Amino acid sequence: MLKKEVQALIDQGKMLPLMEEFYTIQGEGAHTGTAAYFIRIGGCDVGCHWCDVKESWNADLHPPTTTDLIVENAKKYAETVVITGGEPLMWSLDYITQQLQEKGIKTHIETSGAYNFSGVWNWFCLSPKKTKLPTERCYEEADELKMIIYNNNDFQFAEEQAAKVGKDCKLYLQPEWSKKEKMTPLIIDYVMKNPKWKISLQTHKFLNIP
């Protein structure tokens, strides 16, 4: 297939730079402990220095894959698909989510919200980053706000972001993995003083699963 033809399909969301796909247990946030099929799409320029999937940043390392094939793989395993990255909203997600929904599969996303909203979602997990803030539409769509706590300043940033989402959005504070021993006690104390927040942990890492 010619490069121009591939790019046209990528623009339509009919091909995506797939990094990996796997069936596992959701480890974070509101759906912790539930089975889900994860689709990780390459490409991200948000640039979190503590990112644990930096190999996802360069989309050119992850070959464009036919979206129909990704959907066929997903439907073999799960009733719920989580699309993540990288930053998945760098790509048009209307086609893949429509195809999944037509097959009765629930669609979830984990995103920084830094790019234009696309897709049809049963659950929209927004995790804003200071380097590139979410779009207004992404704040409006958020079902879950997951704030990564790396240092003390992140509590203030979390409150600023919480003020921008809807009143029914679930609020989570999650310690950055390398700082969990230091930050978890602070998060516990903060949530006890500010009970609108809940604690999210990366339970999949404790369980030693993907």
Automatic annotation (TrEMBL):
Substrate binds at residues 25-27, 40, 84, 210. GO terms for molecular function: 4 iron, 4 sulfur cluster binding; carbon-nitrogen lyase activity; magnesium ion binding; S-adenosyl-L-methionine binding. Binds 1 [4Fe-4S] cluster. The cluster is coordinated with 3 cysteines and an exchangeable S-adenosyl-L-methionine. Pathway: Purine metabolism; 7-cyano-7-deazaguanine biosynthesis. It catalyses: 6-carboxy-5,6,7,8-tetrahydropterin + H(+) = 7-carboxy-7-carbaguanine + NH4(+). Its cofactor is [4Fe-4S] cluster; S-adenosyl-L-methionine; Mg(2+). GO terms for biological process: tRNA queuosine(34) biosynthetic process. The keyword Transferase does not apply. Residues 40-113 form the Radical SAM core domain. It comes from the Bacteria. It is an enzyme of class 4 (lyase). InterPro entries: 7-CO-7-deazaguanine_synth-like, Aldolase_TIM, rSAM, rSAM_sf. Its EC number is 4.3.99.3. S-adenosyl-L-methionine binds at residues 50-52, 86, 127-129. [4Fe-4S] cluster binds at residues 44, 48, 51. Keywords: 4Fe-4S, Iron, Iron-sulfur, Lyase, Magnesium, Metal-binding, Queuosine biosynthesis, S-adenosyl-L-methionine. Catalyzes the complex heterocyclic radical-mediated conversion of 6-carboxy-5,6,7,8-tetrahydropterin (CPH4) to 7-carboxy-7-deazaguanine (CDG), a step common to the biosynthetic pathways of all 7-deazapurine-containing compounds. Homodimer. Belongs to the radical SAM superfamily. 7-carboxy-7-deazaguanine synthase family. This is 7-carboxy-7-deazaguanine synthase. The gene is queE.
